[in-house]
Specification:
Elements: H1 8-25, H2 32-39, H3 43-50, H4 53-77, H5 84-95, H6 98-101, H7 103-116, H8 120-141, H9 147-170, H10 177-204
Helix pairs in contact: 1-2, 1-4, 1-7, 2-3, 4-5, 4-8, 5-10, 7-8, 8-9, 9-10
Length: 218
């Protein structure tokens, strides 16, 4: 874990420098020396506060994840009502916020995903982030559908968000945020409409008449 005591401005400066170095040269060649050069500091400062490149990568991803949580929570807090559809759209919008789709952040996310398969601290961050997204989506879908259906809908939306982001990031023309949001919105509309229709059908279906009881004669 990074040491405490570094000024927030300098810390943010080093995190930005890390993303710039990854954007410029990829994770493998984003050396401490390159990062230090971008930040205008000595390599000793990075080693002292972060223990090296791995610690700085972890701190960088923690900051990106903090920005992601803020982007989602601020949108949900601004909603005037508790409508499920609106809150699900707020989660989608937060995941495609500008703080998550810039070129430097996108490349850092890709590097993080790849590295999380080999580095335990990063794997923990990825697991926590994934569980948080699924849990939040499931809690929202659960307001209007049974638990098993809510879990499936949440897993599907999480996969769609990640998939749209990944394909857009790898596209040479870049991520079309509006299109990605629209496709994710359509998935939410489909799930909510499908469940509403199923609920209405269950309510409107006539009850079967009780079987007649034939009178027996003794």
């Amino acid at each position: 874990m990074p040491k405490v005591g570094m000024e927030p401005i300098r810390r943010r400066q080093l995190i930005q420098a890390t993303m710039q170095a990854i954007d410029e040269a990829g994770l493998a060649d984003a050396t401490v020396a390159r990062i230090a050069r971008h930040a205008g500091v000595s390599t000793g400062i990075i080693s002292h506060y972060f223990g090296g490149k791995d610690g700085l990568m972890e701190a960088t991803m923690r900051q990106i994840l903090t920005d992601l949580r803020s982007a989602v929570s601020e949108r949900r807090a601004a909603l005037a009502d508790d409508d499920v559809r609106s809150h699900l759209r707020a989660v989608i919008d937060g995941n495609f916020d500008r703080s998550q789709v810039s070129q430097s952040v996108s490349k850092t996310w890709l590097a993080f995903w790849a590295s999380s398969m080999h580095r335990i601290p990063l794997e923990r961050l990825q697991r926590v982030n994934d569980r948080r997204l699924i849990s939040n989506l499931c809690a929202l879908f659960r307001r209007c559908m049974p638990l098993n259906e809510a879990r499936d809908a949440a897993a599907g939306l999480a996969a769609l968000i990640d998939g749209l982001w990944l394909r857009g990031t790898l596209d040479p023309t870049g991520l079309d945020v509006e299109r990605a949001r629209r496709l994710a919105y359509e998935y939410v509309d489909y799930q909510l409409t499908r469940h509403m229709a199923a609920s209405l059908n269950a309510t409107d279906s006539p009850t079967s008449p009780e079987p007649s009881k034939e009178r027996t004669h003794g």
